[in-house]
């Protein structure tokens, strides 16, 4: 049972972690991206359609990432060029994406709520099935897919990229002292646009993982608040890659545990609320910790 929960947690962590990576980088540039949920939905939808049409999971993932990048860039432009409020713009995009995708599904496929297309190609597994025999971690290793590997490889690379490269310095300086960045001849708005596009790229990959890992369908509610959980994760991790990844892994374990707990006959509604209750608890603890550090 522990091996099964570990395997499920590893996979359930991936979309949260991918979205949190994008949100973390965006926050480093000074923009709190509330619209991660919208980009996840768009990424999931595009991935399902392109996978069915092309018969290629690679093209499906690339198309989803491109769609998320474009939407992220447009969101960035609305904030940095048009002066839109960050929170209102993000929430508005979440509502717009959910409504627009439902409309497009109804018009294009005559479907409502759930879209299931033929000839879907799902994400492959990167390790041979023989690793299942390993104790405890065998099932988790056997279930690894390319996007899960990408997510953890990015977490490993981010401390260096943010802390020891020129681009990382530009991002952090833009988020902390935009006038200084402008004074040395750089354009903070352009850097923020690029960071928001980056967030769109990774959030769309998160949606593609949700759609293509095992079920191969799109559902209007399939993100189930994971974009907001990712937001809580990088806040709890104080915009640091490894603490953020640890928070995502915690949420993944909670999600996997509540799925297993439903088989015990406990109320599904109560159990399903467990990850979101923990989000609130963690945010409260994070705020308390922040206030104590300021004293």
Characterization of this structure:
The model has no long low-confidence stretch (mean pLDDT 89). This protein is 74% helix and 2% strand. The protein is built from 13 helices and 2 strands. With 295 residues, it is mainly α.
Q: What is the global morphology?
A: globular
Secondary-structure-derived class: mainly alpha
Helix content: over 70%
Name the beta content range.
under 5%
The succession of helices and strands, N to C, reads HHHHEHHHHHEHHHH
Kindly report the average pLDDT value.
89
Give the distance, in angstroms, between the N- and C-terminal Cα atoms.
Answer: 45 Å
Strands in their spatial order, largest beta sheet? 1-2
Rg calculated over all Cα atoms: 19 Å
Number of helices: 13
Biggest beta-sheet profile = 2 strands, antiparallel
Number of strands: 2
Unreliable parts: none
Give a short overview.
Helices cover 74% and strands 2% of the residues.
Question: Which properties best describe this structure?
Answer:
295 residues; two-stranded antiparallel ribbon
Topology of this protein?
Blueprint: H1 2-28, H2 36-54, H3 57-80, H4 86-109, E1 114-116, H5 138-142, H6 146-164, H7 166-176, H8 178-183, H9 188-212, E2 217-219, H10 226-236, H11 241-261, H12 268-272, H13 274-294
Antiparallel strand pairs: 1-2
